[in-house]
């Protein structure tokens, strides 16, 4: 299995370019006749691009639209608007056989391999299924040889072939899931929480496997994850999502060292500093209120209802665009420069809560949610 150069590659185009992508799910009501009474704006105007052979990490609170974005790129859900250009072709416009062929080049790695692998099929059958479905040349002997190569690539013994998913550990099952996803030699893997169901030591092995495969096969990754340590370790570029939109995008180290958007700052402020004596402790930024409903998002900047730096009335009325504040550093905040330079001071969470009529104790990205998001950040991923 080797990565092949394509015309888009030669033009230096990113492998994937998403523009203005929206996925709005209708909310239906009624006993006899379904009436659409509103829409959940799960993804609401996302632009991003991923260069070949690189990893884009996507983070954000539960429900902000990460999985829906990944599924829309693969056309597992229909986009409401926007384009997904993969290797020079708009996937959103494809139907029938061309769509099937394109799907072969974009595969998904799921969080829960047990849920995504048919328990009645042994590993041989699970791995040969996509090969047969897409008519791999070489007959049974060719398929058998291909499967052995796949097992070897993910570090499983040939003896695994006759066994069933429930006979494996979580980490081994994820190896089977990964083998299946690379069976058709895709260019892009979308991994939705690929290690969050695994023990920390096993997480490191699977992350390392993904990195090895990327190097060997020239794969491009979109990795969706809650664990900021995993995302920092594996990603070249990180995007932060809030209520269906990207609020910040930056090279991984830059984002972690100097977050620019107030929401990213709040996420990062909960990350424990490895050596507080040397580096000084970080001031924790608490947010007021819960994540608003994506069916009824706030006007203006979507984050303004919880933002400690909110300025009336611009933040309430004017939607900020994702703009390039410094090379490769994109942020959607009207006041990013003033916040970065310390010209604007944050309000205390109690003050924001009083203005909004909400409780600080109910923070979504506060003590509860953020701790879940940052678990393991201080535990470096070791190579095995
Ligand atoms: N098929 C669907 N029909 C209606 N609403 C949906 C559907 N799928 C997702 N949603 C809603 O869209 C929003 C975004 O969901 P999504 O699963 O993409 O978020 P997420 O960031 O991946 O969350 P998590 O980290 O919990 O998986 C949520 O409000 C969710 O309830």
What would your notes on this structure say?
The strands form 2 sheets. Strands 6-7-8-3-9-10-12-11 form an 8-stranded mixed sheet, with helices on both faces. Strands 2-1-4-5 form a 4-stranded antiparallel sheet. It contains 16 helices and 12 strands. A hairpin with a 2-residue loop joins strand 11 and strand 12 (329-331). It has helices at 7-10, 66-73, 96-104, 113-116, 123-133, 139-153, 170-182, 200-217, 228-234, 252-257, 262-269, 276-279, 314-317, 336-340, 349-356, 367-373, and strands spanning 16-29, 35-50, 55-59, 81-86, 89-90, 106-109, 188-192, 220-224, 237-242, 245-251, 323-326, 329-331. It is α/β, with parallel strands linked by helices. The protein has 2 domains: 14-27 and 40-242, P-loop containing nucleotide triphosphate hydrolases (Rossmann fold); 257-373, no CATH class. It is globular and about 70 Å long. The chain starts with 6 loop residues before the first helix and ends in an 11-residue tail after the last helix. Helix 7 (170-182) runs parallel beside helix 8. The chain binds adenosine-5'-triphosphate. Adenosine-5'-triphosphate is lined by residues 25, 40, 42, 60, 62-68, 294. Adenosine-5'-triphosphate (ATP) is lined by residues 25, 40, 42, 60, 62-68, 294. This is Peptide/nickel transport system ATP-binding protein.
